[in-house]
Write a structure and sequence with these properties.
Elements lengths: L26 H16 L3 E3 L21 H17 L4 E5 L6 H4 L23 E5 L7 H8 L3 E5 L3 H17 L2 H4 L2 E6 L5 H8 L12 H17 L5
Parallel strand pairs: 1-2, 2-3, 3-4, 4-5
The chain binds zinc ion.
Length: 237
């Protein structure tokens, strides 16, 4: 389908996200070229493919995807990219939201899936690393991914209280888990959704809202303080 001359976001569906058609015969030549170039330039071992907020998938208007199982479409795409990376001993990381049932969990349609992709969690290779972004609440979904067999990185953003709870989860999960499970609680990451200078000026006290509570820089600081506190208390790393 030809792209419109001008995109307006959010669109009529209240979405700003676009997807590519995973069954388009020309798409993977471009995707793999891009992936390979980025990996080579950065001399990287792991590639984060995103794959979050995929709302448009298996659309009725698509001559290739119409009527297909969206979970299978999503899982096959994960498998393809994972296999391509594995050829050179590289690993795939993706966001976890499409793999969580948004209705059953009440997490909603952004940080979890309303479009039936969540069943893909049982179809994708277990060596994919899941970046589980849960920004507004500590939904404890890391446990879900770990029990499914994935390494999981809990991702936080701009709510320090959520991050503190997630750090506590991480340490508790590692402490409670046996050998098989422990290493799957892979870590916790602060994400930022601005240009780096904005984060850095906030972090170094040079932004007007540097001292505000719910900011990425304060979340980052509080998250590290909490880890230091638990480490010095003899917590499980
Ligand atoms: Zn399609």
């Amino acid at each position: 389908m030809p792209a419109p001359a001008e995109y307006k976001w959010p669109n009529a569906d209240n979405l700003y996200c676009r997807s590519y058609c995973p069954l388009h015969p020309g798409v993977h030549k471009i995707v793999f070229d891009l992936v390979d170039e980025i990996m080579d330039v950065f001399d990287a071992h792991a590639f984060h493919a995103g794959m979050d907020e995929v709302f448009y998938l298996g659309e009725d208007k698509c001559p290739r995807c119409a009527g297909r199982d969206k979970a299978v479409l999503f899982a096959n795409e994960v498998q393809l990219i994972r296999d391509h990376l594995a050829e050179k001993g590289r690993e795939l990381w993706i966001w976890g939201d499409r793999l969580i049932d948004g209705r059953a969990t009440g997490i909603g349609e952004w940080a979890a899936s309303y479009n039936d992709t969540y069943r893909a969690v049982d179809m994708i290779p277990r060596d994919v690393v899941i970046c589980d972004w849960q920004y507004d609440r500590d939904n404890q979904t890391a446990v879900y991914f770990a029990l499914k067999g994935f390494r999981v990185i809990t991702c936080t953003w701009n709510k320090p209280q959520v991050a503190v709870s997630q750090v506590e989860d991480l340490y508790r999960s590692r402490a409670l888990s046996g050998k098989e499970l422990k290493s799957r609680f892979y870590g916790i990451a602060e994400t930022i959704w601005s240009m780096p200078p904005q984060f850095l000026s906030g972090y170094y006290g040079k932004a007007p809202n540097s001292t505000a509570e719910n900011t990425p820089w304060n979340t980052f600081r509080v998250m590290f303080d909490k880890m230091a506190q638990l480490d010095s208390a003899g917590g499980s790393k």
